[in-house]
């Protein structure tokens, strides 16, 4: 064989091996980057992202976009290098996203549960801001259980065996005086339906010696209409603030956004406190690329957000839902709002 050809073949071997490694070998990293944004005042797949039925709603304009972080797993070495070189993607150890001992399915299930919790908290925070009175609200119904077909998630409990109850403590106190097998009468209110009365035969539960009703309840602001959130394939709790703002905007006159493209992020508690989130800089990039000019930032994310802010994106610091509403009103009027 010609010496020159042999030399060329020997030189090509490591290149070919490296190419195979780039394509085949996976790395223990996950890529994080800007994800899609969704206008909470708009529609997705023909459905209102925030759908309110059973009461008057008001027209809205502008944008109140929630933001997300894209996530890519099972990266090849070549994909990881390409994403890293792009400058917009962040590579983090896979164990930070998928802790050892937990499968991807378990983590995704937990993220979906967090998202559902954020929807509930967003509704309660908005209704509380709008001064709807609290009620003993059913958060879940055990299935199978005594209350299946009798009570529903979202019902408000008003009385047990004719005795009015105003909070969870009173409700639980009455249940503790019952026995398994006893029939109790529950007065309840249901969204978009007349109030009702039902009789339920209490079951047993190994954790208690009194009657088991089979519902989880909490004290929360209650309204006679329904609020539904129609956004699938998004996990985590960080959409809470923007969901709450959309509910407030639809249930009040005037516009929170006006002609301004508002985006933002932040968890929200049932009492309206805005919490810290992850991936703030990726979400800001996504918002800026979508056309946002104002971005709502949880107060505890302000330092990180201000350190890497895209040009032309005004950062507004928020600690509560009420403060966020006040800031948006101020912006519409050309006034000042707390900034990062």
Automatic annotation (TrEMBL):
It catalyses: Hydrolysis of proteins in presence of ATP. Residues 112-190 form the PDZ domain. GO terms for biological process: protein catabolic process; proteolysis. The keyword Hydrolase applies. The active site is at residues 238, 283. Residues 233-331 form the Lon proteolytic domain. PROSITE patterns: LON_PROTEOLYTIC, PDZ. Belongs to the peptidase S16 family. PANTHER family: ATP DEPENDENT LON PROTEASE FAMILY MEMBER. This is endopeptidase La.
